[in-house]
Design goal:
It holds the Pfam family Peptidase_M24. One of its GO terms (molecular function) is metal ion binding. InterPro entries: Creatin/AminoP/Spt16_N (IPR029149), Creatinase/aminopeptidase-like (IPR036005), Pept_M24 (IPR000994), X-Pro_dipept-like (IPR052433). The chain is α+β, with helices and mostly antiparallel strands. It has one domain: Creatine Amidinohydrolase, CATH 3.90.230. Helices cover 32% and strands 12% of the residues. The strands form five sheets. The chain has a three-stranded antiparallel beta sheet with strand order 3-6-7. A three-stranded antiparallel beta sheet has the order 4-5-8, covered by helices on one side. A three-stranded antiparallel beta sheet has the order 9-12-13, covered by helices on one side.
Length: 386
């Protein structure tokens, strides 16, 4: 099944390497070892070691950038796995939308997602892929790609909130950031909605601002587009929406120059996705990380390439610490309608996250969660709440 021709014990490794190289006339072997920094996590990979390796010449610099770059774009097989993880996760998110009600705890929402995602599924798009073994296997996802974020109320403004121990209150916003993993390939999806299925006006204002940013970014994605420009586009759309509601005032260009968008969206727009939820390759050698607020949180500033899978996750948060800093800055403070801001201080936040595949001419959204508010009323999408 794995097409392995020979198996040896680890303590035979040095001898086998020498024999193989001698047999093919290569002389003393040069060992290429995987060692380098993951620019997303900051961690370094640990190179392989075995008894007798000190007798070989080694190269610690060549392999890491090559393998990292191989992970930046996805093959059709990899894309199929990511798509399946997205299909399962999207269904599980809808199940949480159906089940959520006041009085539940946040960890019950996490349990609902995990339970639904792990359920066996015998119908799958995998039937179109001849490389999949023809056996009846359950296609549920037993594991999540990362710690689930089930945040309600003010907890929703905490980016990587993980306690999930709060109580769901009637009318609060819920921010559900959860993604299942299939055969080691990740999904990473965020949905935001009111816990009772009905938007207040303030909730609708913020949600619509983020949804517009999310949709506009996806509509502009194609090979050659700079990711930093997509981040700025998301910031601009959110600022424009907030200005329409008189939450902020002034010239949008001046706001962008003062990095006002980072007050509401301090996180980066998205990240590469694959074997890791935060896949490596965001900052290859020679590509520097920006230093400005908001932009320094970007996990990549690369140009988009065909075959990339990247998350699109704009958000709008009302974070006391950042609002306080803005108020203390005389120039930044002048852009804010502080009377209106006070109405949103306990709001929390909204984030909408989809997993997007870059195609030759544009992109394809792999995530299939309800996003649009019900146009016939104030309720959430009928798909979820019926």
């Amino acid at each position: 099944m794995y097409k392995v021709d020979s198996v040896f014990y680890v303590d035979e490794l040095a001898q086998v390497l020498r024999c193989e190289c001698s047999e093919h006339g290569h002389g003393e072997p040069l060992l290429f070892l995987l060692y380098g920094q993951n620019t997303d996590s900051g961690n370094y990979s640990r190179p392989a070691s075995f008894e007798g390796m000190d007798k070989f010449d080694t190269d610690l610099s060549t392999l890491h950038p090559i393998l990292t770059e191989c992970r930046v774009t996805k093959s059709d097989m990899e894309l199929a796995l990511i798509q399946h993880a997205n299909d399962v996760s999207s269904e599980a998110h809808v199940e949480v939308m159906r089940k959520i009600k006041p009085g539940m705890t946040e960890n019950q929402l996490e349990s609902t997602f995990r339970c639904h995602a792990s359920m066996p599924r015998f119908r799958s798009k995998f039937q179109d892929f001849p490389w999949l073994p023809r056996i009846s296997v359950p296609l549920g996802c037993r594991r999540c790609s990362y710690t689930c974020v089930c945040a309600t109320g003010q907890n929703s403004s905490i980016l990587h909130y993980g306690q999930n121990d709060g109580t769901v209150n009637d009318g609060d916003m819920a921010l559900m950031d959860m993604g299942a993993e299939y055969n080691f390939y990740a999904s990473d999806i965020t949905c935001s909605y009111p816990t009772n299925g009905k938007f207040t006006r303030n909730q609708a204002v913020v949600y619509n601002a983020v949804l517009k940013a999310h949709n506009d970014v996806i509509s502009h994605m194609r090979p050659g587009v700079k990711w930093i420009d997509m981040h700025k586009l998301a910031e601009r759309r959110i600022l424009e929406s907030l200005k329409e509601e008189d939450i902020i005032r002034g010239d949008i260009g001046d706001m962008m120059d003062r990095r006002l968008g980072a007050v509401f969206m301090p996180h980066g727009l998205g990240h590469l996705l694959g074997i890791d939820a935060h896949d490596p390759g965001g900052y290859p050698e020679g590509l520097e990380r920006p230093e400005e607020p908001g932009l320094r949180s970007l996990r990549t500033t690369r140009e988009l390439k065909q075959g990339m899978v990247i998350t699109v996750e704009p958000g709008c948060d009302f974070i006391d610490a950042l609002l306080g800093q803005a108020r203390d800055d005389p120039i930044c403070s002048s852009f804010f309608n502080w009377e209106k801001i006070e109405m949103y201080r306990s709001f929390g936040g909204v984030r909408i996250e989809s997993n997007v595949y870059v195609t030759a001419q544009g992109c394809k959204n792999l995530t299939n969660c309800p996003r649009e508010r019900n146009r016939s009323g104030n309720g959430w999408c009928a798909l979820a709440f019926t």
